[in-house]
């Protein structure tokens, strides 16, 4: 009888959450998010356009930067439809298929961004440690294969996640904690055994986030070891400046992700407003800050972006 009732009451829709108890604040949060999305979109499009148009930027470093920028465009866009609809239009109900589709894209682009940052660390390592072999090794074909491998790795790891969620019955509550669909948030609503989901989610995090973080630590150690052996102080500062930009981008990606996880697990005593604001901004805010870091700290890109933005002629 219990199994029959669960089948009858199995939810096929999810209710997304705005700011609990404060619906009048949703408009201002939605307006802020729209401005945030707009600045992120405009800045990333400008960077992509400059890299495409200017021949001087057709180098491995900037190709990887273009991959990062394209991912930074895709990651916020994957959550924007439901986030804006909840906070601005008060449309809080989504079907199970729409929810798991959004979940797939959010987690996939998150994995892609982590992989691209690893590829950029490898590029920086090759440029500093093996400068004579840098150009012959990192050809256009190799860069393309690296990008394809990063994408396929993320898709392959994330693809089972929505499939594992879709098989679960949801017969108690169908109200999610955020304005977008995330695996951990949807999994907790299931009225069945979720050990398989939990174990696979943990393995996916270890294989993507933990392994990538270890690669970053190892590459940083090897890069700084190589930098200390550079005779020219000017070249040393140039190498450290390039590495510093990458370290800032890595922190902008990992710190909000870790902070979101910690608050989700241990911040239940915090105000719902804190949870909502962090959940709504941890996807679009890092891409905006990341593009500022790279456009300001990377001298060539900064010069050409300023010229394009001011309507000047881009020249050599």
Output the structural class: mainly alpha
Globally, the shape reads globular
- In the sheet with the most strands, the strands line up as 1-2
- Please give the CATH class: Mainly Alpha
Main sheet, how many strands, which sense, barrel? 2 strands, antiparallel
Low-pLDDT residue spans: 1-8
Number of domains: 1
Pfam family, one: 7tm_4
Protein name: G-protein coupled receptors family 1 profile domain-containing protein
Domain G-protein coupled receptors family 1 profile: 43-294
InterPro entries: GPCR_Rhodpsn_7TM, Olfact_rcpt, OR51/52/56-like
Helix and strand layout, with pairings?
Elements: H1 2-8, E1 13-15, H2 26-53, H3 60-87, E2 93-95, H4 96-129, H5 131-137, H6 140-158, H7 160-166, H8 183-187, H9 195-228, H10 233-266, H11 272-281, H12 285-297, H13 299-309
Antiparallel strand pairs: 1-2
Describe this structure in words.
It is a multi-pass membrane protein. It is found in: Membrane. The chain crosses the membrane at residues 27-50, 62-84, 104-130, 142-165, 199-224, 244-263. This is G-protein coupled receptors family 1 profile domain-containing protein. InterPro entries: GPCR_Rhodpsn_7TM, Olfact_rcpt, OR51/52/56-like. By secondary structure, the protein is mostly helical. It has a single domain (13-309), classed as Rhodopsin 7-helix transmembrane proteins (Rhopdopsin 7-helix transmembrane proteins), CATH 1.20.1070.10. Helix content is 75%, strand content 2%. The chain is built from 13 helices and 2 strands; from the N terminus they run αβααβαααααααααα. It has helices at residues 2-8, 26-53, 60-87, 96-129, 131-137, 140-158, 160-166, 183-187, 195-228, 233-266, 272-281, 285-297, 299-309, and strands spanning 13-15, 93-95. A two-stranded antiparallel ribbon has the order 1-2. α2 (26-53) runs antiparallel to α3 (60-87). The termini are far apart. The relative contact order is 0.15. Mean pLDDT is 78; it is low at 1-8.
């Amino acid at each position: 009888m219990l199994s029959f009732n669960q089948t009858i009451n199995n939810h096929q829709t999810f209710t997304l959450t705005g700011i609990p108890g404060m619906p009048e604040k949703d408009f201002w949060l939605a307006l802020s998010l729209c401005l945030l999305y707009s600045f992120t979109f405009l800045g990333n499009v400008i960077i992509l356009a400059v890299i495409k148009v200017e021949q001087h930027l057709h180098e491995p470093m900037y190709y990887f930067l273009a991959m990062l920028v394209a991912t930074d465009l895709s990651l916020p866009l994957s959550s924007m439809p439901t986030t804006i609809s909840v906070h601005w239009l008060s449309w809080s109900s989504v079907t199970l298929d729409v929810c798991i589709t959004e979940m797939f894209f959010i987690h996939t682009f998150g994995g892609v961004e982590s992989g691209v940052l690893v590829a950029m660390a490898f590029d920086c390592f090759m440029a500093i440690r093996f400068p004579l072999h840098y150009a012959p090794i990192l050809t256009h074909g190799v860069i393309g294969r690296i990008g394809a491998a990063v994408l396929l790795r993320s898709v392959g790891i994330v693809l089972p996640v929505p499939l594992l969620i879709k098989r679960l019955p949801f017969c108690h509550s169908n109200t999610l904690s955020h304005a977008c669909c995330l695996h951990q948030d949807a999994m907790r609503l299931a009225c069945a055994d979720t050990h398989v989901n939990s174990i696979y989610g943990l393995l996916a995090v270890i294989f993507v986030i933990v392994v990538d973080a270890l690669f970053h630590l190892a590459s940083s150690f090897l890069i700084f070891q190589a930098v200390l052996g550079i005779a020219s102080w000017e070249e040393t500062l140039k190498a450290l400046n390039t590495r510093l930009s990458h370290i800032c981008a890595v922190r902008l990606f990992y710190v909000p992700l870790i902070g979101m996880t910690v608050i989700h697990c241990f911040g239940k005593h915090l105000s719902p407003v804190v949870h909502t604001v962090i959940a709504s901004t941890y996807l679009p805010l890092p891409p905006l800050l990341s593009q500022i870091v790279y456009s300001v700290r990377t001298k060539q890109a900064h010069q050409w972006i300023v010229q394009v933005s001011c309507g000047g002629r881009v020249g050599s």
